[in-house]
Write a structure and sequence with these properties.
GO molecular function: metallocarboxypeptidase activity; zinc ion binding
Strand content: 5-15%
Organism: Agrilus planipennis (Emerald ash borer)
Number of domains: 1
CATH topology: Aminopeptidase
InterPro entries: CARBOXYPEPT_ZN_2, Peptidase_M14
CATH architecture: 3-Layer(aba) Sandwich
CATH class: Alpha Beta
Number of helices: 8
GO biological process, one term: proteolysis
Distance between the termini: 28 Å
Family: Belongs to the peptidase M14 family.
Largest sheet: 7 strands, mixed
Strand order of the largest sheet: 1-2-4-3-5-7-6
Helix content: 25-40%
Order of helices and strands: HEEEHHEHHEEHEHH
């Protein structure tokens, strides 16, 4: 079967042949492609931004948000966003978990994991958060099963798999990162729900590099393996009223909230600098670097009315 999102990605490549190409990072357990798009607006751009979503199948709002961002990078009339879009090469992977995502449309709306059957335990009687599959968000090697937040029980919603990279989807993501390599300057993974901004590392409370402690094993691995300067996980709307079943009238506002931070992640031209443009940098709050403070207070959850980007 062909996911409708993939057809939309193909249409972008057809509309913008000079700037957009599609790619396949790999294939899922059931053989579906992990398809994304690569956007390059400036010929001499070398630094890379990566945005992904739907590693957890039930988080539909993340797919809507990542595709909204892709569309705005190409069509915006906002000069600040235009400049940010041209500064980097953008890889956008809307559905890391296509098997599970497809399953939520036709069988179980709240399924979380992929569809990889465990041969030792029958989880078919479980549904929703639990049930068959591996939690792809726990299937990466950094601090794998070293602390709380993951399970070795195959029917758990947080089953980490029998070993790191046991899932083909995680291996496909690894291959994508290996191809990008040290050019990766900004990584954003979209999740729901809670309305939080999270940063690595999740296994320790010790402050690291240019941000302070929060959780997400998945982006921890990206930070650890590639030393990417700016790594964030956005937990999108809401805070629990609707949860994963977010009403359609909240799709655009949610996507706009995530988009609002994008102009603030342009790296300085000097190689190796982790500061952001629009100097001078702000004075950071205790325990929070200038990088993070700028992102939060000038971006996420702060959309100035004059900078709102209309739905097209």
């Amino acid at each position: 079967m062909k996911l409708k999102v993939y057809a939309w990605l193909d249409s972008l490549a057809e509309l913008y042949p000079k700037n957009v190409t599609t790619f396949i990072a790999g294939y899922s357990h059931l053989g579906l492609p992990l398809k994304g798009i690569r956007i390059q607006l400036k010929e001499n751009a070398t630094r890379v931004a990566l945005i992904d979503s739907a590693i957890n199948a039930r988080e539909w709002i993340t797919v809507a948000t990542s595709t909204y961002i892709a569309n705005e990078l190409l069509t915006t009339k906002n000069e600040t966003l235009k400049a940010a879009a041209a500064e980097l090469i953008w890889y956008i992977l809307p559905i890391i978990n296509p098997d599970g995502y497809n399953y939520t449309f036709f069988v179980d709306r709240l399924h979380r994991k992929n569809m990889q059957v465990n041969d030792t335990v029958d989880c078919s009687s479980y549904t929703g958060s639990n049930g068959i599959g591996t939690d792809l968000n726990r299937n990466f090697p950094y601090q794998w099963m070293a602390s709380g937040g993951a399970s070795d029980w195959p029917c758990s919603k947080q089953y980490a798999g029998p070993y790191p990279f046991s899932s083909p989807e995680a291996r496909a993501f690894r291959s994508l990162l290996e191809g990008i390599g040290e050019n990766l300057q900004f990584y954003l993974t979209l999740h729901s729900y809670a309305q939080l901004v999270l940063f690595p590392y999740g296994h320790t409370v010790d402050p690291i590099d240019n941000y302070y402690e929060q959780v997400s094993i998945y982006d921890d691995w990206v930070k650890s393996a590639y030393q990417t300067r700016l790594v964030f996980c956005y937990e999108l709307r809401d805070t629990g009223t609707y949860g994963f079943l977010l009403p359609t009238d909240q799709i655009i506002p949610t996507a706009q909230e995530a988009l609002a931070s994008i102009p603030n992640v342009r790296p300085l031209q000097e190689q190796g600098s982790g500061r952001l443009l629009n100097s001078p940098p702000p004075k950071a709050a205790p325990g929070i670097s200038a990088d993070v403070e700028r992102l939060i207070y000038k971006g996420f959850h702060k959309i100035e009315q004059q900078n709102r980007i209309p739905l097209r």
